[in-house]
Amino acid sequence: MNLTILGCYAATPRTFTNPTSQVLEIKNRLFLIDCGEGTQVQLRKNKIRFSRINHVFISHLHGDHFFGLVGLVSTFMLLNRITDLHIYGPKGIKEIINLQLRLSNSWPNYGLLFHELESKESEIVFEDDKVIVKTIPLKHRVYTNGFLFQEKVGDRKLDMNAVQNYEIDKCYYQKIKNGKDIILDDGRVIENHKLTFDPIPVKSYAFCSDTVYDESIIPYIKEVDVLYHESTFLDSEEVLAGKTMHSTAKEAATIALKANVKQLIMGHYSTRYDSIELFKEQAETIFPNILLADDGKSFEF
Amino acid sequence: MNLTILGCYAATPRTFTNPTSQVLEIKNRLFLIDCGEGTQVQLRKNKIRFSRINHVFISHLHGDHFFGLVGLVSTFMLLNRITDLHIYGPKGIKEIINLQLRLSNSWPNYGLLFHELESKESEIVFEDDKVIVKTIPLKHRVYTNGFLFQEKVGDRKLDMNAVQNYEIDKCYYQKIKNGKDIILDDGRVIENHKLTFDPIPVKSYAFCSDTVYDESIIPYIKEVDVLYHESTFLDSEEVLAGKTMHSTAKEAATIALKANVKQLIMGHYSTRYDSIELFKEQAETIFPNILLADDGKSFEF
C-alpha cells in the first residue's frame, strides 16, 4: 500500500502548497482521493501516469477538494483516453462537470461514470476481487464522506510440506486455499488448518477530511492500519475549529487513539501556521504514531 | 501600459507551463484576461496583489481559458474581499460559477457581477474616464471574443508660457485643456492650438485568442500598439490549425501586417513543440516586430 500526497493544505492553493489530493496505490490499483485545483500538475510532478487513474473519490464539494476535477477530466480527453473513468462524489458533482463540458462543447470519448452519493449511512462504493471501498459519513459544513479502503482477505497459504505429505492431488489446492477441509481416499478428514497458514494480513486505509471532531466515526475506522485525519488547526484555534467544523491536531490524535489505529497521518493544515511541526508536537501528547503529510511525500505501508 | 503573461500555452497545464491568463495594467487599472487553471498561483508567483483585480475578461468557455476562475472567486472570498468583482464572459459563465458556489454552500460577501456576452458584433463592455474595453468577435469552435483595451484621449496639455503671456485666469485652464478657444477681455479670440500642445498619445492593446485566421477582425485591431494574437501551431500543422480553428505563427503575423499594428506578441502555443523560438522565426518572415509571450514575462509599452 502506497500513499502519495499531492496536496494537503486547507483553503487556497499557494506558490508552494496545494489543496487536498492524494493517490492511494493498493493491490496494484490506483485511487485518486479528492482533486483540488492544480492536481493534474501535481500528478505530473509526482510522475503518476494519468492512464492508471480509473477511480476518483471526492469527499465533498468545497473548492479545495474538487476544483481540479474538471481540468483533469478535460486533460484525459485531450490525451485521447478511452478507458472509463469512475467518479464517486456528492450529488451535484455530475451537474458541475457536465455543465462545463457542455458549454465548452467538448465531450469525452471515454466513459465518464458518476456515482453520486447522498446517503448518510456508510455504504460500499467500490468493490472488486481485491479491494473494497466504503464511505465514512463525516460531519462538516456540507455533505461529506471519508473513504475506507480495505484489501480483501486473500486465500489461505498452502503448507506445501503438509499437502505433499498427505499426497493430495493438485486439483484440490484451490479448495484448500479457500479454507476447505479435505477427505483423503482412505476416508480420513484433514482439517484445513493442518494444510495451510493464515493468509497475508490485509491492510486498510481511512481518509477522513474534512470533519469536525466526531467520535461517531470510530466504529468505521477501528484498528485501521493508517488513518489520514484532518487537523486544520492547532490548539490555539480550538474554538474556530468547532465553529468551522474542522479538527485540531489533538482532536485528530484523540480519534486515532480511541479508534486504536496503527498509524495516524495528519494533514489539511491551515495555511496560517509557519511550520507544520507543531501539529506533530501537539498530537504526540495524545497518540504516539504520528506522521505529517506534506505535498509530494509518499508513505509505504 | 504593462502586460504580464501568467500563462500562454494551449490545452493542459503542465509542470512548467500554464494555460492562458494575463494581466494588463493600463492607466493604473488592472485587468485580468482569461483565467486557466492555476491562475491564482501564477498571480502569487508574479506578486500581483489580488485586491487590485476588479475586472476579469473571459474570452471563451474552453477549459484552458476559464477553469481557474471559480478558484479565484473562492479565494477572494476566503481573503475577505469586499470590493465588487466584475466578470465579462460568454453566456453560461454565471451558471458555471454560481452552481459551484451554491453546491459548496459558500457565497461571497463581495458583489460578484456577471456581464454575460452573446453578441456577435463588437460592443463596449467596460468604460470609465480613462479606459474603454470593446469585444472583438472571433471565430473559434465555441462563441469567443477577443478584447480591445484602449486608453481614452486625455486633456490637451497647457502651454504655460502662452497662457501666462495672454494673462488668462486659472479658472479657464480646464476649459482650455478640454480644447476650447478663449475670448480675452479685449474681445480677441485666442484659438486653442495657440494655448495647448496635443495630449499624450493613447495606447491600445488587442487580445485575440483563440481564433482561426480571420481577416474580418482587422478593422477592430487596425493600428493598435500591441496585438496579442494566438499562434497555436507552426506551418507544418497548417491544416490542423484550420480544422481546430486555431492560427499558425505565419497567420498571426499576416494579421499583424494587414492590420498595421506596431507590435505583435504571439502565444497560445501548442505544447507539442520543444522550443517556441520557431514561432518567431516563422512569423518574422512576414512581420518584423514580434515578441514571444512566455509564462512570467512582462512587457512595458
Automatic annotation (TrEMBL), chains A, B:
Gene3D superfamilies in the cross-refs: Ribonuclease Z/Hydroxyacylglutathione hydrolase-like
Membrane as a keyword of this entry, yes or no, is no
Q: Which UniProt keywords apply?
A: Endonuclease, Hydrolase, Metal-binding, Nuclease, tRNA processing, Zinc
Q: Which domain of life is it from?
A: Bacteria
Residues that bind Zn(2+) 1, according to the entry? Answer: H60, H62, H140, D210
Q: What class of enzyme is it?
A: hydrolase
Q: Which catalytic residues are annotated?
A: D64
Known EC number: 3.1.26.11
Q: Which GO terms describe its molecular function?
A: 3'-tRNA processing endoribonuclease activity; zinc ion binding
InterPro entries associated with the record = RibonucZ/Hydroxyglut_hydro, RNase_Z/BN
Named cofactor requirement(s): Zn(2+)
Could you tell me what the cofactor note in this record states?
Binds 2 Zn(2+) ions.
Which amino acids does the record list as binding Zn(2+) 2?
Answer: D64, H65, D210, H268
Q: What reaction is this protein's catalytic activity?
A: Endonucleolytic cleavage of RNA, removing extra 3' nucleotides from tRNA precursor, generating 3' termini of tRNAs. A 3'-hydroxy group is left at the tRNA terminus and a 5'-phosphoryl group is left at the trailer molecule
Report the NCBIfam families cross-referenced here: PRK00055.1-3, RNase_Z
Q: Can you tell me which family this protein belongs to?
A: Belongs to the RNase Z family.
PANTHER family this protein is in? ZINC PHOSPHODIESTERASE ELAC PROTEIN 1
Subunit field text: Homodimer.
This chain's function reads: Zinc phosphodiesterase, which displays some tRNA 3'-processing endonuclease activity. Probably involved in tRNA maturation, by removing a 3'-trailer from precursor tRNA.
User: Under what name is this protein listed?
Assistant: Ribonuclease Z
Q: Which organism is it from?
A: Flavobacterium soyangense
